[in-house]
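Worked example

This section walks through a single chain of length 145. The input is the sequence exactly as stored; nothing has been trimmed or padded.
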Amino acid sequence: MRMMMMAGALLLSAATGVSAQPSQADADVVKAAELRRFEVMTGKDYKALATLLGDDLVYTHSSAAVDSKASYLESLTSGRVTYKVITPANLQVRVFGDLAIIHGEAAMNVDANGQVMANTLRFTDIWAKRDGRWQMIAWQSTRMP
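Given that input, the structure is written out below as tokens.
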């Protein structure tokens, strides 16, 4: 299995010209951006959040609902959705050139349309480096039992 993973990384590198060896500095920057995103979401700083999200964001919730950047921000600014607490755990960042993938878990307390929910999620999100800064362009989460 390890050989297959190494072969896959080599093929990715050869096909895209992107090194599969992560840059620790970039990984640290992306992780900090992810933690900042959680912070501004719970702090209701939606202007700061907008700068962390790519215009082409595809945000797939654990309910399978899908939002664009505009619809996601609208749900927050309207007050329909309010993130009360986000506690991330086990964040793993892999960087491939100007793309980074984060795998992690998060305990979230969310008020959605007046219904308070506590969920623990496993998630994957993708960040892209654009004009020298990292932006989240995709999110997919699954509820954990």
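What to look for: The chain has one domain: 23-143.
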